[in-house]
Amino acid sequence: MGRAMEENAGRSGGAVLLGNLPETMRRARRGCTSSVRAAILRLRSRLGGAAERGAVAVEAALVTPFILLIFFGIIEYGMLFKDWLAATSSVRAGARIASAEPRVTTFAQDAADQSAREGAALDFSTLQKFWVYKSDAAGFPVGGNGSFSDCTVCVKFTWNATSKKLVPASDTWSSTTQNACQGDANHDRIGVYMALGHPSITGLLFSSITIKEHTVMNLEPMSSTTGCK
Q1: Who has the most CB within 10 Å: 60, 70, 103, 157?
Q2: Whole-angstrom Cα distance, residue 225 to residue 178?
Q3: Which of 149, 142, 143 is nearest to 195 (CA)?
Q4: pLDDT at residue 201 in the model
Q5: Cα dist. 209→28, 89, 125, 152, 178 in Å?
Q6: How far apart (Å, rounded) are the C-alpha atoms in residues 140 and 14?
Q7: What whole-number distance in Å separates Cα of residue 107 and Cα of residue 149?
Q8: Residue 122: DSSP 8-state
């Protein structure tokens, strides 16, 4: 009887072990699957981070030149605009002085000196043309055929780097020939013209641009009794 009980107990224990075997295998499989899934996720994370960094590098390489071009463009055209404003102010100041000195011997030099003072921010070493001229009805120089290609009644100046002054190069307009008579239909108009080179800072957008500005004003009227023409 005792032997029968031992045999029954042995069979019962074996059944328990066999019955737990599938559960143990399932747990092992789940553990293995979890480890594999975690490894895959880590690999994806690493690969994904590298891909993102590569994409950022490519985008930066494509966008950076355009950003730099815009940046240098702002600097270049900002400096050009500054010189253009200075040139405009310079010729206006010169024309104002010249118009206020009808039939004065030094009218042209006084205009040039005032223009140089007003345009102190300009680099006059790049000066191409500076004229104090007799203007036609359209504002162009007499003898220029409707342009600033030349003038026949004017005083032309060049820049002297030693004296830092505008000095006359040719003079075909004597103050004694000016007509400043009040109410006269042939009353003279006087203009100041400047052409100045503006070199590029970086050379990326342009090498050099010529700034051209002029201002024209009527000579201040004089009484006919004081010799207005």
Answers
A1: 157
A2: 15
A3: 149
A4: 87
A5: 80, 18, 14, 26, 35
A6: 120
A7: 23
A8: S
Residue 94 token pair:
């010169």
The number of CA neighbours under 13 Å toward the Cβ of 106 is 4
Please tell me the distance from the alpha carbon of residue 118 to that of residue 98, in angstroms, as a whole number: 14
Euclidean distance between the first and final Cα of the chain, in Å? 158
CA distance 129 to 145: 17
Is the sign of the CA dihedral 67, 71, 74, 77 positive or negative? negative
Mean pLDDT by 10 residues, the chain (229 residues): 48 47 53 61 58 69 86 92 96 98 96 97 96 96 93 97 96 96 92 96 89 97 85
The two beta strands, 165-171 and 189-199, are unpaired
